[in-house]
Amino acid sequence: MSTAVSGLVKIGKTGTGNYRERMRFLEGNGYANATGLKREFAIEVEDYDAKEQRIDEIFAKARVGTGELFALDVDLAKQLLAAFEGTQVHPPLSRESKEKVFTRAVDRHRRHAEVRCIPDGTYRCVLSNWCGRRNHEN
């Protein structure tokens, strides 16, 4: 799920039987002070506890606090989840196939990654003291 804060993503698991109810609750109430949650991708998989643990390990450095929020590109998360074997739950297959979700996420993530790169060149770093003292160039 994406949140109202760009770059903040909620990744978690819920049972197939209460998926719709859980999504409505999160979309209406938020999660751990994150609001504006929006469904991005959901997949039903076997051995979901092990898969969630693996996702937590992969994105460990991006975890915000101790919950299910991660500071990362939503397309990177969608890319990983779409690579799992399983039955796509959201978006409905009638709207978009798992392969299309994966391909679109890869393309969007690449575009976002290129924007974040610092172009080659020579850069000057100016360090300033917050007390208003003289600036030092390095």
Automatic annotation (TrEMBL):
Residues 3-84 form the Bacteriophage T5 Orf172 DNA-binding domain. It comes from Bifidobacterium cuniculi. Pfam families: T5orf172. It comes from the Bacteria. This is Bacteriophage T5 Orf172 DNA-binding domain-containing protein. InterPro entries: Phage_T5_Orf172_DNA-bd (IPR018306).
